Amino acid sequence: MKAYDMENSAWARFSEEERIEVEEYNKTYKEFLDTARTERLAVKEIIRQAEAAGFRSIEDVTSLVPGDKIYWNQKGKSAILAVIGENPLTAGLKIVGSHIDSPRLDLKAAPVVENKKIVYLKTHYYGGLRKYQWVCMPLSLIGVVYTTAGEKIDIALGENPNDPVLFINDLLPHLAKDQSEKKLSEAIQGEMLMPMLGCNSTEEKTKPAILTLLKEKYGIEEEDFASAELEVVPTQKSRDAGLDQSMIMSYGHDDRVCSYASLAAILNAAKGSHTQVSLFADKEEIGSVGNTGVQSSFFQDFLAEMLALQGHTEDLSLRRTLRHSEVLSADVSAALDPIFADAYEEANSAKLGYGICICKYTGARGKSGSNDANAEFVSKIRQIFNTANVPWQTGELGKVDQGGGGTIAYIMADWGCEVVDCGVAMLSMHAPLEIVAKTDAYCGYLAYKAFFESK
């Protein structure tokens, strides 16, 4: 099979046996999508699978030898898995870095409001989403609340088929003359993204009745929202898309299609000469900030802890480890969309169903905010994929002056690592429901596994 082939899709290049493997892989991927609905749930599921495969918390080990499997849980919202290789850590790591947060609506600290006897939840959108796409669809409320007494309450409203759902209203077309003349970015504004929570009351006000229901159902008071992390996400679970079932429609493909591929790869890869590391980061969609984002110290703290377990406590060892490490920044890319072809430069756009996408640079316009990978490292990645017969392609994020975007690549490059963006190309990125090709999802797994196993 030719690894780089822009004339034939990956499906056309796969054997019948490989096509069966594509379907089997995507069954488990859809299960992950439907379980890991938020970054907290993703970490929980990642660690569950890791522990089942023999990984132990780094806090429970006193030394490290080749073959050891360890993990780091960063405040329940980011995670790292590592398989210790034969070479010393200072020889460098093989790192696949993905993120597990996705665009969504977050509840404000004082979210419950009433207007004309209808009770709403006030939200603040998270990440680069298009606000008009989030109206008139079933929505779930997922997250945690810490009560005045410090008790943790898990919320998953809308996830059970018998649950009620939330809903953000839009203006009926009969009265939308003025709204229809506005720009897409202005027709639905941020403060209008308010899910309806209820309208029944026998009293003058509805809000007290809703607060009573919250107390009865979850044991929470209005003040408890101040110490909560509650996310509004689409209720719709993953579904096969297309008559030929060649695609998956789901919330959160960005970036769970890459994070699951990284998880599956590190769980199944043969032990390598270099230590293999899967990073699952939070906060990428808002700049990798906070103490669960990659701009914080937690990843380097994890490396320092590993080095200490092998007897290296000096700062120079950490710097050497990073300098000699190689990273695939596992984040999604934009697939060419023929319906909106004017936004793309076709010759340099990835295509749906043609394999994992190598993106040498991201950024905006003049490559601002980009890593811009070195040619030597891109050459090495090409050789790894070609040798392992992994279908791959190249691409970038649309026309030069059309827009742009970024990943965690530039942050890890700042540490001295060799980094290139390498992820699954998709359609409808950052929409409530996104589309990926099953073959591309599987190629992500093949690519990361081949990278882990390479010298």
Automatic annotation (TrEMBL):
**Pfam families found in the cross-reference section:** Peptidase_M18
Note whether Hydrolase occurs among the keywords. Answer: yes
Query: Could you tell me the Gene Ontology terms of the biological process aspect for this record?
Result: proteolysis
According to the UniProt entry, its GO molecular function terms are: aminopeptidase activity; metallopeptidase activity; zinc ion binding
Q: Name any cofactors this protein relies on.
A: Zn(2+)
- Could you list this entry's UniProt keywords, alphabetically sorted: Aminopeptidase, Hydrolase, Metal-binding, Metalloprotease, Protease, Zinc
* Top-level taxonomic group: Bacteria
What's in the GO CC field? cytoplasm
Please name the source species: Megasphaera paucivorans
Q: Does the keyword Metal-binding apply?
A: yes
Which class of enzymes does this protein belong to?
hydrolase
Family from the record: Belongs to the peptidase M18 family.
The EC code for this enzyme is 3.4.11.-
Protein name stated in the entry: M18 family aminopeptidase
